[in-house]
Structure to design on (214 residues):
DNA sequence: TATATATTTCCATAATACATGAATTATGGA
DNA sequence: TCCATAATTCATGTATTATGGAAATATATA
């Protein structure tokens, strides 16, 4: 992963509404949620949400598919995995005992 | 973890120099690095680095101890773990098959 | 075609973060 | 004590980012 992409992803998550949206989609799981549901659940205006969904998409953290008039959004777990890999790169190279506790206990 | 703390941590990492510093300290492992070494390795001015180290510390992503005139910095793996837990919260609740691939393949 | 719903785009203003030079604090050695 | 080294703090001009109103686009239904 290139560094600029990682920074884009981290900046996307470092935002009051977007972190809520991402975590909501993580919880929603494979079923995802349509934009309107997200806006209603989090009490966000449609245009602000649209902008923030676009930023999360550009950051590779969520995906979407159109369903009639609605658009359904999903957390992109692969994007998240790539981001974490970049941040933890070479951590476990010489010192696996320092890195492993980070990964355990997350579930 | 409270949301504002997570946002602070993510914003700390979403920065060209700070992400370099963090990853350098992750690679350095338990031995850490003194500030001067970091500045030299990454070619960062002392005052800029100091400011960015302070931001990373405040975000709970690195720690430090003084060693004579120098200060040694370490990646804070526990802080990282807490951040990831917050982001992935409840992911594995109903759909462990979506969350697990994120955690594997990182090492 | 006309209307309603869902979402996005455009734009202006306000707020925030950034890098740098200069000065300051802290520690160790002569 | 005096000086050198290591790191931090402060002030400031610049640039980036966020927000919300209004308008526009896309799709479905009557």
């Amino acid at each position: 992963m290139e560094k600029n992409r990682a920074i884009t992803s981290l900046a996307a998550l470092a935002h009051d509404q977007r972190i809520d949206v991402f975590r909501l989609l993580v919880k929603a799981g494979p079923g995802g949620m349509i934009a309107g549901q997200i806006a209603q659940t989090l009490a966000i205006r449609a245009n602000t949400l649209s902008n923030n969904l676009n930023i999360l998409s550009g950051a590779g953290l969520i995906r979407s598919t159109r369903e009639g008039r609605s658009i359904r959004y999903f957390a992109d777990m692969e994007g998240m995995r790539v981001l974490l890999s970049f941040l933890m790169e070479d951590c476990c190279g010489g010192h696996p005992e320092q890195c492993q506790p980070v990964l355990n206990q997350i579930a």
In short: Residues 34-36, 39, 46-47, 49-51, 53-54, 68-71 of chain A lie near DNA strand C (CB under 10 Å from a C1').
